[in-house]
Amino acid sequence: MKILAFAASMRKNSYNRMLIKQAAEILKSAPDAVLDLADYREFEMPNYDGDLEDSAGIPPGGREFIRRILAADGLILSTPEYNGGIPGSLKNAIDWASRDDSDPFQGKTLLLLGTSPGRFGSVRGLWHTRIPFEAMGAYVYPEMFALPNARQAFNDAGAFADPKNRDRLEALIRSYLQYVRALMGDRSANHPY
Amino acid sequence: MKILAFAASMRKNSYNRMLIKQAAEILKSAPDAVLDLADYREFEMPNYDGDLEDSAGIPPGGREFIRRILAADGLILSTPEYNGGIPGSLKNAIDWASRDDSDPFQGKTLLLLGTSPGRFGSVRGLWHTRIPFEAMGAYVYPEMFALPNARQAFNDAGAFADPKNRDRLEALIRSYLQYVRALMGDRSANHPY
Amino acid sequence: MKILAFAASMRKNSYNRMLIKQAAEILKSAPDAVLDLADYREFEMPNYDGDLEDSAGIPPGGREFIRRILAADGLILSTPEYNGGIPGSLKNAIDWASRDDSDPFQGKTLLLLGTSPGRFGSVRGLWHTRIPFEAMGAYVYPEMFALPNARQAFNDAGAFADPKNRDRLEALIRSYLQYVRALMGDRSANHPY
Amino acid sequence: MKILAFAASMRKNSYNRMLIKQAAEILKSAPDAVLDLADYREFEMPNYDGDLEDSAGIPPGGREFIRRILAADGLILSTPEYNGGIPGSLKNAIDWASRDDSDPFQGKTLLLLGTSPGRFGSVRGLWHTRIPFEAMGAYVYPEMFALPNARQAFNDAGAFADPKNRDRLEALIRSYLQYVRALMGDRSANHPY
Lengths: 193, 193, 193, 193
Prior knowledge:
CATH architecture of chain A: 3-Layer(aba) Sandwich
Structural class of chain A: alpha/beta
Radius of gyration of chain A: 16 Å
Shape of chain A: globular
Number of helices of chain A: 7
CATH class of chain A: Alpha Beta
CATH topology of chain A: Rossmann fold
Oligomer: homotetramer
Number of strands of chain A: 6
Strand content of chain A: 5-15%
Order of helices and strands of chain A: EHEHHEHEHEEHH
Distance between the termini of chain A: 26 Å
């Protein structure tokens, strides 16, 4: 199964980039998982504008985003919380992607992770981020991973300072991959009703 | 597969009882679905009170609720919207059920339906209702069924006045059952990691 | 100005009772604030049931709840988080109160506090709790007070173990009381349009 | 009092532009209201990027957005719903604005309107949009205005086809302006505690 993973942050030294790299490390040990680790800058696009869409269609960054989602069996996203919610740039990428006839999020599984320097570790943002994905038909995994105190949570090598966080993330990713496998079978099988 | 279905309304002539009966009719035509259509009054319980729990445990209505959830492969709920949100009595049933060691909602699939006399058809309430179920680990199906103008939506026999609503609900239930089947396979299989 | 304050927990040794008592202490030092500190058990009522309402009206606990809200200029509530959301019993009290012609929450100011033993201190529950109050027209103060690690947060006397939490709550209550005063003026004044 | 009003849509023929113009007409009849009707394109800015902020600061469109908010006593926004939520471009504008030391949304009153071609009239999007504004300390008016079936809701002159919608919006704006007046008094007064 193919997993598209990325951090929804443009910042080079983003804590969410560190977190998605930790997730990527864990994914490597799953024998049937093929990782597509994307850089968020590959999906850069202008703000959604209906007139721009009418004249020029979905921009290149949006088309690349759609292509990568469609090629994946599941998505893992690590996202910062901005002002208690989803980053505008991530919502904007969703808004463009939703304009495609392929309906790229429909039936796609998604695991949400997030970290922030604060004590709530982006937990509010993760719940705000679920909503548009679910509105588009994505299967957002119920459990999410919120990591508080990002500044202290990673060591100089960018790995988890506390091995318990690694264990917690590994257990969550294992469960999520089971879920992806189960629903992949669903999509490929032919279930008469 | 066994599906527990009920309307989260005590009222005898509740529009949500009519809606769950329509869902039950549709379920009967799925050859592999066994329906457990419950009456909400079977799950009556007092308001959650930690001291009461300490002295007397989970009340009979709560134990019955847990037993029926655990016996099911999936749940279909039709719920009114009260003040833009989940009915207090439904949240209270969840609160009691969550106290059981069996963690009854964990990994349980759930389809949410709702109807109300207003023009928004309980759509706000459905989104508010998702949250506690997801917080307990339930797989809440992304698409939900919100039926506005409940007073006009059913005929004297309690069936949909507009056949398009029946078709829309049937298509949704079919998709949901596929999802239940896929995830049942997941639970019974042994996926080495 | 009159402030109704209570903890939305029946448990005798509830951490949210400790928290509301701390809020009550702070309120005493505001010269123009008259405190009505209620016990949640005064508002005990059965689960909302439209048929029961038709036959017997709003139950005594609900009528008392409405009477106390209507007598207040503002409300301060300390609420546990149950399963990522509002306690069912609190939502049930809202559901009954909303049935009264007086529309008791309309234009009423509300400050939400919450504590829980976990590391997120009920922050998810507080956001879930805002929604029905706002749907009924209450002015829910934007800032809320979420106190994590409830077990360690109070000393044996039931006061804040860390004085910073007291300072933080005092600053918030001061700001909230300004807001109540401003909106009380609005209700009593005659603003021609 | 000064009211900043705009539609959160770039599209020239946006239904939300029509809706904000209707709100602007209503505002003109309030003798103490001075209207600043902005075009969303004045606030165009790139996606938030922490590295860009470090090197170049808040972009011109963001600084203009902040300047106009700070000059206003209240905001009225008409916003489309994209995928069940806030438009990414609006959230992005909030994300940039929140980076300013002036904390421009803190204590600012806000009325949310929205229209969409669908039958739910952006009601889900409005509730998703409240959250980040409230997280930044804005006083978001509890009642919101959701207008379904946008295609049929406006006549060729761009006015409400049904006068009941105008009456409904006028009553809401009147109530909102009372709220702004009350809270302006609060900010200018000196309330000893």
